[in-house]
Structure formats: C-alpha cells, structure tokens
Amino acid sequence: MATQKLIPAPTCADIEGTAPLPPKAAAALARLESKLGAADVQKVAARYRVASAAIAKASQVLGARALTDVEASDFDYMQDVMREARTVLAEAGRLDLIGGV
Predict the structure, then answer these.
(1) Is the entire prediction scored with pTM above 0.70?
(2) Can you give the pLDDT at residue 30?
C-alpha cells in the first residue's frame, strides 16, 4: 500500500487569507471603525482606568475624612470622565476593554 503525501496545514492566516466575517460581526466591526480607530479605543479605555483608580483612591480618603473642595471637584470630574469613556466604548461595542459586557 502506497502512502499519500499530505499537504501541511497553513501556519499563518495572513499567508492563506481569512474567511469572511458573518454579517453581524462585519456590521459591528464597521461601527467600531467608524467611531474610533484602534489606538483611540485604547486611549479611551486607559482614561477610564485612570479615572477609576483616582475614584478608588478618593473613596479611601472618604473613609478617613471629608474631601477638600479641590478633591471633591476632582472626584466629580473623574466621575464625568468615566461616564463619558464608558459611553464612547459602549457605542464602539468595546466595553470588554474595561471589564464590561
């Protein structure tokens, strides 16, 4: 019995090409690309994480004492930053970058 020579599987999708996206995935990708470039999405997610860390720190301070006027103003601003970033990421369909669904 003779053996057949098998063709090896491709090692990289870039070499062989990729399958087309399902329609829903293509539409989601188009929405994302129209809202923000990939780098911009990462910047918005980073702003959210920085603001979240500042809110956590201010919350620790609140456990020990009242916030000063400047700290309270910063606290309100950071909440606004988080809200805006979350809205942008939700519209881009990328809440996964901040732990959302």
Answers:
(1) no
(2) 79
